[in-house]
Amino acid sequence: MGDIFQNNSNFRYSDIELDIGGETALAGLDFSDRDVGDSIAMLRRLKSRQLLLLVALSEARSLRGAAAMLNMTQPTATKLLQDLERNVGLPLFERGHRGMQSTAYGEAITRHARLVLSDLNRTRLELQSLSLGGTGRIRIGAVISAIPFLLARAVARLKQQNPGLSVSIDVGTSDALVPALAKGDLDVLLARPLVLADRPEFNYEELTEEPLHFVARCRHPIAKRRSLSLGDLAGCAWTLLPAGAPMRKVLEPVFAQIGPGEPRDVVETSSMMTMVALLQESDMLAVMPADLTRFNVQHRLLWRLPIDLPPIMGSYGIVTRRDRPESPGTLAFVKQLKAALKDFA
Predict the structure, then answer these.
(1) The total number of structural domains that make up the chain
(2) DSSP 3-state of 107
(3) Confidence band (pLDDT; 50, 70, 90) for 117?
């Protein structure tokens, strides 16, 4: 079940009416614009339970399942859907042998329903934080291996200046984090621009370009050599990010220079901590971003091999939603991130 329905016992969307009626609330709108007038008319009749039903239907694929998710009867769910389709004047779902299937109109309105509900939940959490003496909330996403120690320094300073600010950091693959940002589950994302192809709904601000380094354990036989070439790495065992990861893709030409069919002996993991542990327990080699290499070399956990790689990974940057204003917490985080970057320069 999706995040929207989590903690529903604490925050009852079904008890909320999206009522924007009243002369005072609407006084600033120009009703001579027919589109604005039509939008207001639709919103006046829109109920929060209908938004929940849209999301539940997209997950359950049946009115019975959606009704059960929302603790309502199936006739109630049927009437809510009928009223909504009458309101918008378009068919939103079709019945098929695989259950209820969204039409193109249904997919569009469900996507926006998720955003509205996500914003409501975000508002609830922020108000809850403020009521407990906090100063807001920020949810940060970072793709695997994205400048973790720069991120850690920025967050540590952020908390020093804003101890009441609630901070969460979600580290994962771009396949999971980019949709999370799009849905409103994240406030800001640290990622590379290549994951944002054909996604005009995002803003991207370049932060830093981070090179890659070959590393091994400090007592690795190859660590004694003062000079190395790519050809010297032929036949070595490796621990690398999974084959579908962007780093693996850009490393393909590099391994082609090492030798035909390289890498042949590989342990794949998406965990950099596991990668470091594997290097300590074996003669495997790895490729790591400069931020991770710097930390592990300084603490004498790893040895950087004397082979320079070109800047093949590109830059990291700050990704935000284009259609959403940045919260005070997000602005404060970005400020600390840029200040920390100067320390690492």
Answers:
(1) 3
(2) helix
(3) confident
